[in-house]
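U., I forgot to send this yesterday:
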Amino acid sequence: MTLQKTPKEEEHEEKDDPGVEADVRKKNESQIIYQDIAEVLKYLASQVVLDEQFYLGLRRGANLTRIIQLWQREKIRKSALNRVTLKYLGEDGIDSGAIAKEFLLM
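Result:
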C-alpha cells in the first residue's frame, strides 16, 4: 500500500517515533510503502486532531448525495482531520464513538 506524504508529515513522524523507519520502507521522498493495514491505520489515527470536532447532523437513511453535501459544508468551517462527531436527528444520545463508527462503516 502506498500513501503520499508531504515533507512536513515525514518530519513530524520522524520526531514522534524514531523506530518507525525500521518497519516502513521509503520508496522515494514523497511515498512510503506500508507493510500491512495496521501500519496504515496507525498512520491515519496519528493524523486525527482529537481536540476539535468535525460535526455532522443527519437523518438516518439519508442518501449519499446529501451526506456528501453536509460533509462539504462542514469542511468549509472545520478541518476534516478533526474527530468526527455524528448526531442522527430525532434520536437521543451523545456520540461517544460508536455512532460515528457505524456511520463510517456504512
